[in-house]
Design the sequence.
């Protein structure tokens, strides 16, 4: 069975300001390895039977996508001459329309295509476990199911949505009972103890044709306009520009709301593979290797009497004395200094800067 990756690369990643911002969101940065996050997303599929990927992104990021995916594609896809399909979204409309248009491209590439839909900014430590989960999901997708990956929770997280699985395991998957929004701490603890709930990963596997059929049933207007946007797209040498008029008429929505919460064909494959969506600097601290003082140090940094901190230098030296539990990130034009416990407010800074123009 051959799988076509659909990589979603439309996010802004403002919670990782000042590095992730504007024309350089986090998926194009080497935050956890020497490779960028979008490159790692494709590389973790190496060893599976996959065709050239379809990447959905905005106009501003088209050349970075082409360069970064092009650099590693020969390592992942056996046909070295294969090129990625890069779909340009005229404006952000959330995940469902982007996936629908990408499914149209996948069907054009292979009418029976099974696709794996992946955000471009996740971290997965255990690649083998991830690949085994993809294989199990693909078996279910071939049978006509829409499969999501439920991350086995390791603590009562309040920052993630959840999926509830029910019934007994069949071909590595469970019946998808429902999605639930981000819970309060008490509810999250209940979910963790029940063993029935998993974190909503935002990753999916299904036949492209099955997804479009379900979208036509549950969100018919979105389906019609997404298909129209692809059929009227301007095809260039390296990019496919979705039709602006058609795409602009779409009432944007997530795949969860548009399809997955309504379909009777949902399945869950549970995934325990060291997953993280790297949504903040504190999350990046949590998954990074620490030194003897529990610091994560990147770049030219001198840290004296400093503990439990994330410090990332840029072109200049950063020196700290007597600090604990802080985040310091230096970029070419901005410097962030924050208490780690307040790091979620970084998004407010990005919004303030944007408002300034």
Sequence:
């Amino acid at each position: 069975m051959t799988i076509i990756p659909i990589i979603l690369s439309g996010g802004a990643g403002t919670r990782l300001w000042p590095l992730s911002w504007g024309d350089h969101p986090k998926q194009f940065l080497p935050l956890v390895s020497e490779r960028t996050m979008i490159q790692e997303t494709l590389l973790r599929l190496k060893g599976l039977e996959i065709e050239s990927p379809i990447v959905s992104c905005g106009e501003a990021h088209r050349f970075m996508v082409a360069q970064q995916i092009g650099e590693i594609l020969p390592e992942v896809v056996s046909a070295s001459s294969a090129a990625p399909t890069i779909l340009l979204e005229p404006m952000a409309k959330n995940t469902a329309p982007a996936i629908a248009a990408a499914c149209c491209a996948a069907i054009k590439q292979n009418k029976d295509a099974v696709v794996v839909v992946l955000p471009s900014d996740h971290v997965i430590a255990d690649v083998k476990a991830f690949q085994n989960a993809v294989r199990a999901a693909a078996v279910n997708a071939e049978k006509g199911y829409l499969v999501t990956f439920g991350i086995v929770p390791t603590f009562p997280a309040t920052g993630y949505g959840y999926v509830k699985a029910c019934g007994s395991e069949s071909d590595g998957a469970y019946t998808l009972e429902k999605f639930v929004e981000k819970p309060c701490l008490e509810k999250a603890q209940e979910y963790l103890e029940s063993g029935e709930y998993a974190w909503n990963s935002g990753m999916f596997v299904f036949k492209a044709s099955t997804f479009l059929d379900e979208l036509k049933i549950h969100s018919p207007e979105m389906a019609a306009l997404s298909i129209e946007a692809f059929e009227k797209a301007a095809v260039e040498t390296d990019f496919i520009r979705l039709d602006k008029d058609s795409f602009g008429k779409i009432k944007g929505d997530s795949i969860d709301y548009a399809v997955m919460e309504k379909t009777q064909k949902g399945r869950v494959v549970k995934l325990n593979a060291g997953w993280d969506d790297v949504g903040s600097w504190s999350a990046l601290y949590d998954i990074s290797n620490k030194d003897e003082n529990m610091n994560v140090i990147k770049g030219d940094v001198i840290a004296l009497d400093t503990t439990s901190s994330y410090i990332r230098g840029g072109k200049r030296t950063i020196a700290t004395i007597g600090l604990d539990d802080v985040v310091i990130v230096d970029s070419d034009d901005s410097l962030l200094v924050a208490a780690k416990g307040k790091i979620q407010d970084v998004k407010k800074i990005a919004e303030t800067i944007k408002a300034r123009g």
Q: What stands out?
A: The mean pLDDT is 93.
